[in-house]
């Protein structure tokens, strides 16, 4: 009886290890697929707070650009956005797109509270269908993607990133 229980326990452990191994492998594969998909800016649409549909191909060739996926309730997101807002040299060098899947009403309040509406180079966009979130493999916020003017990904930051670091990438 003890042998039988030990054998069942051993099978359970082997099964659990196999499942975890497969899960890790699957996650690594998914990360690789996302990495390849975003190496060049993928095609997507977002909605400006004025209701206009914005195409990602409009971002390319104008200037380097920064795409930050955020949430209005995230303190780390707010800190990153404040840092970007106060860094004038970064705004002169790059377009900054702040994207969230929250309702437009919430995003407008956020934009007004942080006084972003008067800044030409910072645009708040809505990802109403979570297309951007899925396409870029966003799992947490803030998640920042820095692209050059040709649409090539320079760097992907997960977590709060200071504007000085972003500026060093886009000034090259």
UniProtKB/TrEMBL annotation:
Residues 35-172 form the Thioredoxin domain. One of its GO terms (molecular function) is antioxidant activity. It comes from the Bacteria. Pfam families: AhpC-TSA. This is Thioredoxin domain-containing protein. It comes from Fodinibius salipaludis.
């Amino acid at each position: 009886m003890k042998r039988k229980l030990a054998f069942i326990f051993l099978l359970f452990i082997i099964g659990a290890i196999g499942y975890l191994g497969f899960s890790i492998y699957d996650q690594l594969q998914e990360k690789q697929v996302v990495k390849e998909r975003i190496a060049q800016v993928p095609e997507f649409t977002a909605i400006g707070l004025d209701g206009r549909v914005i195409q990602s191909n409009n971002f390319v060739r104008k200037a380097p650009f920064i795409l930050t996926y955020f949430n209005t309730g995230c303190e780390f997101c707010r800190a990153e956005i404040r840092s970007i807002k106060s860094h004038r040299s970064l705004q002169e060098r790059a377009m900054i797109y702040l994207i969230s899947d929250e309702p437009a009403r919430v995003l407008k309040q956020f934009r007004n509270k942080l006084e972003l509406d008067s800044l030409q180079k910072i645009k708040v966009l809505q990802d109403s269908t979570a297309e951007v979130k899925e396409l870029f493999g966003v799992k947490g916020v803030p998640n920042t993607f820095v692209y050059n003017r040709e649409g090539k990904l320079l760097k992907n930051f997960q977590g709060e990133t200071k504007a000085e670091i972003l500026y060093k990438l886009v000034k090259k």
